[in-house]
Amino acid sequence: HLRMKDPEGRSLLGPIFLVTKPFRDKTSFCIQFYNAEKMAMFKLFLDRDENKEVVPHQLQGFEKLKTIKLV
Fold it and tell me: Would the CA dihedral through 42, 62, 53, 50 be positive or negative?
């Protein structure tokens, strides 16, 4: 559990990005969480199997997240 509020109760969480980019000879996939000051807080990378391929169900979930419309 991450506490995402300051002592006054304001949210510390800023934008969240779904990032796909080339890395070495593969494509890298991650979810990047930024704070209210637009500084990276942490990144979650999709896992790879023993053949260094992205785990299929994680990639499917990542692609599904990209379709969600936020208001």
Answer: positive
What is this structure's pTM?
0.79
Alpha carbons 29 and 56: distance in angstroms, whole number: 12
Dihedral, CA of residue 62, residue 15, residue 40 and residue 45, to nearest 10: 0
| CA–CA gap between residue 26 and residue 9 (Å, rounded) | 41
62: DSSP letter: H
Give the pair of three-digit tokens for residue 2.
């991450």
Residue 71, pLDDT score: 66
